[in-house]
Amino acid sequence: MPNVIDLTGKIVRDAVTPSIFEKDYSDKLHTIYRAVHREQANPRAGTASTLRRDEVRGGGRKPWKQKGTGRARQGSIRSPQWRKGGVVFGPKPRSYVESLNKKERRAAFIAALSDRFKNGAVTILDAENFAIVKTADFAALVFGSAKEAKKGPSTLIICGQGESSFEKIGLVARNLKAVAVTHTGALDVKDVLRYNRLVFTAAAYESLSAAYAEEAK
Predict the structure, then answer these.
(1) What digits encode the pLDDT tens for the residues 143-177?
(2) Residue ranges per domain, the chain?
(3) Strand order across the beta sheet in which 11-14 lies
(4) What class is the 3-44+101-216 domain?
(5) DSSP H helical ranges for 85-201
(6) Taking Cα atoms as reference points, which of 28, 183, 181, 204 lies closest to residue 109?
(7) Residue 68 and residue 191: Cα distance in Å, rounded?
(8) What letter would DSSP give residue 40?
(9) How many CB atoms lie under 10 A from the CB of residue 156?
(10) What is the pTM of this model?
């Protein structure tokens, strides 16, 4: 069960892990892979483009006659072996968008979160009256001290969507290289797996538990 800490870093209680995250999802590794691959591929612009030999300007005249020069025969200075020539099998604009149905995306997200719960990588922060304004104080809360923040585990702070403390936490944590801040509406599979530790605010954890309570039945 994840620990609930207050704004001083003290453990005040243990939270109940939603039953859906206590199941075995070892058979979902490929689904997780596909979900992460999709999340990384879909933002790609796909605008890389090179010119083929027929698209490069110039090169309409034969550089030298076919025979008698002692040099290799050439038909155009825009052939691929020439400097400033065309590119063979170069990239052309394309779409990198991959499809994955909603059921598989949800299964991958649950499986990834389940792994974090099982490895004790989830903590809950009671941030209802969040009043920390110094980065050093926030580093002490998350890592124990400002010094430990420089070598501590990568940490993702997850706030509830529309939570009042979201902007405050974002401001106080922005100079900590090992810390990132997001909200439940933007959380995805690659974020869950990228960071060594997940810190949910109490409001975010409550909304997460409520969202998956029905599915666990």
Answers:
(1) 988 888 888 899 999 999 888 889 999 999 999 99
(2) 3-44+101-216, 47-95
(3) 11-14, 3-5, 122-125, 197-201, 155-159, 179-183
(4) alpha beta
(5) 102-118, 135-143, 165-173, 189-194
(6) 28
(7) 65
(8) H
(9) 21
(10) 0.83
